[in-house]
Structures are given as structure tokens and as C-alpha cells.
Amino acid sequence: xxxxxxxxxxxxxxxxxxxxVRLTRAASRLRRAGRGALTGALAAVALAASASIxxxxxxxxxxSAKAAAGESEPSLASLWSTRPGWDAPQPWRTDKWYVQFAxxxxxxxxxxxxxxxxxxxxxxxxxxxxxxxxWLVGLALFQNSFGQFSQYLYGALQWHPWQEQxxxxxxxxxxxxxxxRGEFRDKIPFNHYEIAPAIVPSVGYxxxxxxxxxxxxxxxxxxxxxxxxxx
Length: 231
Known about the structure:
With 231 residues, the protein is an alpha+beta fold. Helices cover 30% and strands 38% of the residues. The chain contains four helices and eight strands, in the order ααααββββββββ. The protein has an eight-stranded antiparallel barrel. The protein is globular, with a radius of gyration of 43 Å.
């Protein structure tokens, strides 16, 4: 027969052990919560201290420093608009730069291979005169009538011949033309090395800073341009 032994108080010890385990777990949770609360309290103290220091620095700064810090950097447009000469009464006469865009080409002898020519021309006006005209230097970048990228580097003289219409002007430029290549090399004279001399006359009229020109391209065609002068 099996023998059963009974230990006095064993049934009482089991509940005590279970309570001890629960108390240990609760204590662990309390320690973790305590650490989290302490960390949060320290973070709050640090944040309050930094805010106090920033406020003290702000109140101790002189008013001029605050105003300077609050001012933003001026924009490029505002700086450009305050340049001397921007408010000149006759800007077409006193401005140094002129930028124009050719928007239409009139071909006197149309060819099926012709394309519209578009050009950007930048001119600088010197304070030098010869034969009653003002010296200019410039560079034009354009697509020629055969779709080839071309360049024209030039000097020019500009006259205002009629006193009753001073915004009206006549201009004659002379320089070197490059860009007519391959089968179109002979479309302009003296272009044996793909660089040829050129003379280009034009007439124009200005309204304040805005101008338009009629540019004669020898006996082959003409350009119509619009542009703007800049101090």
C-alpha cells in the first residue's frame, strides 16, 4: 500500500508564496514608475531653466540689437530698384544696359527651309562719342534662319537725329558673325571660315525704358525686337 505523508502547514505556505510574488511584481512596477516620474521631472526642470535663461537674454539685449535681429535681409529686387539712375526722367538716354528680344523674322525671299529666328541681344552703352553718335558694345545670341545656333559680337554707334522726337534713334553695328555652317555656310558673304564680318543697321523708338527696333539683315530679311533699358 502507498504511504501518504502530510506536512503540517503546507497548505498555508502556498498562499503566502503567491502573495510574495505579487508584492515583488508590484514593487518592480513602482520602481519603474518612480524612475519615469523622476526623468520627467528632471526634463521639466531643464526646460523651465532654458526658457528662463532665454527670457533673461532677450530682456537684457539692447533695443537696437533686437531691431537689427528682427530686420530681414533686403531682397535683390529692392536693392536693384534703389540703384542710382533708376528714377531718371529719361532712362532711355541715361541707362547703361539694353536687353532686347527678337520675336519675329521677315524673310524677303522665303525658302521652305527657313525657320523663325529668335535672338537675345545685350548691349552696354559707353560714355564715349564719335561722329555725333554714342558708342555701344554688345553680343547677340540667336537661332539663324536655318535653325543653327549663332552669335554676333559687335560695336555700334547710336544717334538721336531729330530733336523734336528724341526717343527715336538710328543705330549701325559692325562685328563678327559666327554660326552658319555646313551647307548653309555660303548664305552670308565672306564666310569661308564660318566667321564673317557683318554690318547691321536698325532704327528704334523708346517709351521710358521700353524700346522696339526694326533691324535690317541686308537684302535677306528683317527682325522686329522689343527690349528694356537698365541703369
